[in-house]
Amino acid sequence: MILLISIVLLGSILHYMWKAEAALSRPWTPDDSSLAFSQRPLSPPANESFLSSPGYKLPLRTKGRDIVDQNGKRFKLSSVNWYGASDELFIPGGLDVQHRDVIAATIRSLGFNSVRMPYSDEMVISNPEVPPHLLSANRDLVEMRALDVFEATVTALTDAGLAVIINNHITTATWCCGADPCDAGWANDYLPNGLCRCAGFGAPCHGRNGRRRQSEQAMPC
User: Which residues, in sequence order, are CB contacts of 144 under 8 Å at separation 6+?
Assistant: First the structure.
């Protein structure tokens, strides 16, 4: 009886995994509304929506449901995610293809005024050396460690007038979320150490406006 139950349970798990993988392997076909949106020309971004506008005075804070500046003026986030520093390569993606200043300018030109920058505790604690080929479009960063590359990328964004939300995304550098339940938690020694270290390097960056804890809502700084 136990053997039969085990076989049924194992079969159910394998069937579930097969269905999940089959769904991922199906090619995505955009619907009509997605096609229309992608083909519509973008209007130029409003300069007053960026932190570099003289209309805003830092720091930002929350007031009820809104994010406001020091004078109470609302700052509405229009954000994009710059992925990579939370994964196995430890640095934001694309630095081998384009200079970080060009990427920051492109983000702004598309109308976004803020960027989410996820990272892992492993990146902060181990701070590994970065292989040069991953920085081939940013030669000035070659021989720097992961945390230095992350800081330089954040600085490029803030210099472009973009707000940056630093996201403590995961404990072990990997794609979220794997089989390790501890990766999504933050009740350990890594979180406070990592947050303190990132808060320290971000202090001089006046556009670095927030940080986000693992599995938690965004927090104002």
Answer: 130, 135, 152
Confirm if 73 and 84 have CB atoms less than 8 A apart: no
Of 113, 122, 200, which Cα lies nearest the Cα of 168? 122
Greatest alpha-carbon span in the chain: 74
- Is the full-model pTM beyond 0.90? no
Residue range(s) defining the domain that contains residue 114: 48-220
Query: Is residue 20 classed as helix, strand or coil in its secondary structure?
Result: helix
Query: What is the C-alpha separation between 126 and 192, in angstroms, rounded?
Result: 15
The pLDDT value recorded for residue 91 is 93
**131 vs 57: which has the higher pLDDT:** 131
**CA separation (Å) from 140 to 19, 127, 144?**
46, 18, 9
Instruction: For residue range 148-191, list pLDDT tens digits in order.
Output: 999 999 999 999 999 999 988 888 877 765 555 555 555 555 55
Q: What is the CATH number of the domain that holds 63?
A: 3.20.20.80
As for how many domains the chain has, the answer is 1
Q: Express as a percent the part of the chain with pLDDT over 70.
A: 77
Across all residues in the chain, what is the average pLDDT? 79
CB count within 10 Å of CB 194 equals: 21
The HSE-up count of residue 40 (CA atoms within 13 Å, CB side) is 9
